[in-house]
Amino acid sequence: MSKYIIKVNGNPYEVEVQEVGGAASNAAAPAARMASKSAAPRAAKTAQPASGNTGEVIAPMPGTVLKVKAAAGDTVKKGQVLLILEAMKMENEIVSPIDGRVAALNVSAGQSVVAREVMAVIE
């Protein structure tokens, strides 16, 4: 698995990319990677933007909170799904950036959020 930092509209995102397939020839490999990249937006994805305060869970894009999977006071692990954000008809898993406790949960199911809004704080 490879890690990359990608900037979208000036906002840095850390992403992990795993190569799928196995016995593809070197000539077919770029085509296979292109096919997997074009299929990725249709699947649920996990995105967490980088922020100045590593315990803040920031909305990576405007959208609607579909489901909240953690509550204030819960202990969470880094990478654990905290909520599902629907944006552009895609479900995005928003994860905890660090191990800790949910100190504040600023959103609820059905609520709309704007890009860069603090949705939760982990301490």
From TrEMBL:
PROSITE patterns listed in its UniProt record: BIOTIN (PS00188), BIOTINYL_LIPOYL (PS50968)
Top-level taxon in the UniProt lineage: Bacteria
Segments for region (Disordered): 36-56
Keyword flag ATP-binding: no
Keywords: Biotin
InterPro entries on file: Biotin_BS, Biotin_Carboxyl_Carrier/Decarb, Biotin_lipoyl, Single_hybrid_motif
Species: Ruminiclostridium sufflavum DSM 19573
Bias-annotated ranges (Low complexity): 36-51
The keyword Magnesium is annotated on this UniProt entry: no
Pfam family, one: Biotin_lipoyl
Domain Lipoyl-binding stretches: 48-123
Protein name: Biotin-dependent enzyme
Matching PANTHER family: OXALOACETATE DECARBOXYLASE ALPHA CHAIN
